[in-house]
Specification:
- It is a single chain.
- The protein is of the alpha+beta class and 588 residues long.
- Helices cover 21% and strands 29% of the residues.
- Strands 17, 18, 21, 22, 24, 25 and 28 form a 7-stranded mixed beta sheet that branches. A 4-stranded antiparallel beta sheet has the order 4-1-8-7.
- Helix 7 packs across helix 12 (525-537) and helix 9 packs parallel to helix 10.
- The longest helix is centred in the C-terminal third of the chain and has 15 residues, at 401-415.
Length: 588
């Protein structure tokens, strides 16, 4: 944004476009920050007359070309094989992205920052940030690797969300004796909030409603995250400008004042009055005092619980995939088919499945996922099924990790016959049946449906979604191929809340995206998959939090004592730690 400290004339002119265009409902909120702490146990001893002097280097990976880049280093600790590093790694956390991390350990032999001068490599470990925060208590232990034939010890990585990113503040302001700007009336005042940036510019972060025809407005209280207001820096300048609203968008500048979050927070115990100053008037008129005042009526600070609080408290994300095997996808043996298994690259179904699954699997402790298909004729008798197990076992449709799901998908393509029609409601109802059994916040279900076109049971699907909207459940629909996806778009409740038989969905639980919008024109499939995963998963944390908040479910402060017991969709009948299996229905 243009530097707002220039002349007031330029100031008013520049800000008009940004004020008119700013929409607080769609403004991007900075990512949550997490603090990574690293410890190691039983490192290799590389020094002859003492123990190793370890240092840890964190590398992060770029999405496009998978290049590893150094992010930061811990301090080195002298003479120990069990270091607890004090220096933290602060990372932006995105649920919807796969954030790959690499930790390299070295025995520090010199003061040089050049790692080639430190010949004593102690080992390394790979993981994702999602694996760390998704581990029990957000604490992950992993063996160090990288030296053949050597036991390199263990690395312990702990994640903690930074508290200053979690505060929200409820603010209310009123104005008094503001300048009159309208010829036939008074003024229609509103406030615009900006946070300062390091380079001296300002970024708009909130706009109040307009209060019509008054010089003494009382604006509604509004809630804003502290990270939006000042990026967690309590002393960072916050500029508040006062305008008189005009229908044509040429809002008249009344004046401005500056404050900080630290100063605003004193409003918890007292009123705070700010003088509204127009720099241009002040420069021209010697007796000019101000253009009115704005009073902070109330300031209530709240620390909100976040998605990570629930994950850290032990909430499990249960992931189920359902793949469209209808004949409209084309014969899998032909290159024109959406299910074609090329020896050179993955088809759209496989890419969508891997892109989303690789991220979701980090939040499930046992990594066992039900994988379903619909719309195919099954061997040996050719019965049509709209919810069959990809691994061929209706009593145990679990696959081990995303690789197991991929293998089951490829195997199914060779054994079933693509048929139809395209029914969504059976798989939605099946997942919803299990989500309805767990309403204490300990589990949340995500269903990924990948399909190529027209839905044959639209009315039933709408009813299923409306029914599921009150359950701990979200639905992701990825459309593949060149077809029109009007019906799938209708299921996504971003614009119009979905309804069935006069009942509206309690909340938006469906996210639809067409895969073709994410295909990289240069053929970079890794980038295509990353873009897809980012968009389809972006709404999940908020859908999750909406469910928990509306039901008053708080995250557990202490995770369950054991990680061995995890419940997933369509449980294994042979596992004593899981409820008995409910066989799937095969429809003809």
């Amino acid at each position: 944004m243009t530097d707002m400290r220039r002349s007031s004339t330029m100031n008013s002119f520049v800000n008009m476009a940004s004020i008119g265009e700013f929409d607080p409902l769609t403004a991007t909120i900075p990512a949550t920050k997490v603090e990574i702490t690293v410890s190691c146990r039983n490192l290799l001893d590389r020094d002859t007359f003492s123990k190793s002097d370890p240092i840890c280097i964190l590398y992060t990976q770029t999405i496009g070309n998978r290049e590893w880049r150094e992010f930061a280093r811990t301090e080195s600790i002298d003479n120990t094989l069990n270091p607890d590093f004090v220096r933290k790694f602060i990372l932006d956390y995105f649920f919807e992205e796969r954030q790959n991390l690499r930790f390299d350990l070295y025995d520090l032999d010199s003061k040089s920052e050049n790692l080639s001068k430190h010949k004593d490599f102690l080992g390394q470990a790979y993981c994702t940030l999602g694996e760390v925060v998704g581990s029990l208590g957000s604490r992950m232990e992993r063996p160090l690797m990288g030296i053949p034939g050597k036991n390199c010890g263990t690395i312990i990585v702990t994640a903690e969300e930074l508290s200053n990113c979690r505060e929200s503040v409820l603010l209310q302001f009123c104005g008094n004796k503001l300048d009159k700007k309208d010829f036939f009336g008074k003024s229609d005042p509103f406030l615009v909030f900006y946070r300062s940036n390091v380079d001296g510019t300002f970024t708009i972060c909130h706009k109040t409603e307009v209060v019509k025809n008054t010089l003494d407005p009382v604006w509604q209280a509004f809630k804003i995250p502290v990270r939006v207001l000042c990026n967690g820096d309590y002393d960072r300048e916050i500029k508040i400008e006062v305008y008189d609203w005009d229908r044509d968008g040429g809002h008249d500048y009344i004046g401005e004042f500056s404050t900080s979050y630290r100063e605003l927070s004193t409003g918890q115990s007292q009123f705070y009055i700010f003088e509204v100053v127009n720099p241009r008037k002040k420069k021209k008129k010697k007796k000019y005092k101000n253009s009115g005042t704005v009073t902070l009526l109330s300031c209530l600070i709240d620390t909100e619980v976040t998605f990570l609080d629930y994950i850290k408290g032990g909430t499990q994300i249960n992931f189920t995939v359902a793949i469209d095997f209808t004949a409209s996808n084309g014969n899998p043996s032909q290159p024109t088919s959406l299910h074609y298994l090329s020896p050179y690259h993955q088809n759209a179904y496989a890419m969508a499945l891997r892109a989303v699954g690789e991220i979701i699997q980090d939040y499930d402790s046992d990594k066992m996922f039900p994988a379903l298909g619909f719309g195919a004729k099954l061997p040996p008798d050719g019965r049509v099924s709209h919810e069959f197990a990809l691994n061929g076992n209706p009593d145990n449709p679990y696959c081990s990790g995303i690789e197991g799901v991929m293998e089951a998908y490829y195997t199914s393509l060779k054994s079933v016959r693509l048929y139809g029609p395209t029914y969504f409601s059976p798989v939605i109802n099946n997942v919803a049946r299990y989500a309805s059994l767990v309403r204490d916040g300990s589990e949340y279900y995500i269903l990924l449906i990948i399909s190529d076109g027209v839905i044959s049971d639209m009315a039933q699907t709408k009813e299923s979604i409306v029914n599921a909207s009150c359950l701990p459940m979200s639905i992701i629909i990825v459309g593949v191929g060149p077809a029109e996806f009007d019906e799938m778009i209708e299921l996504d409740g971003d614009e119009v809340r979905i309804s069935s038989r006069g009942r509206f969905a309690e909340r938006d639980i469906v996210q639809f995206v067409p895969f073709r919008d994410y295909i990289d024109p240069r053929g970079n499939h890794i980038l295509s998959m990353a873009r897809l995963a980012k968009d389809v998963l972006a709404e999940i944390p908020e859908q999750f939090l909406h469910y928990m908040r509306t039901r008053g479910i708080k995250p557990q402060h202490h995770p369950p004592p054991s990680q061995s017991q995890s419940y997933s969709f369509l449980p294994l009948s042979s596992s004593a730690s899981k409820p008995p299996s409910i066989p799937m229905q095969t429809q003809i």
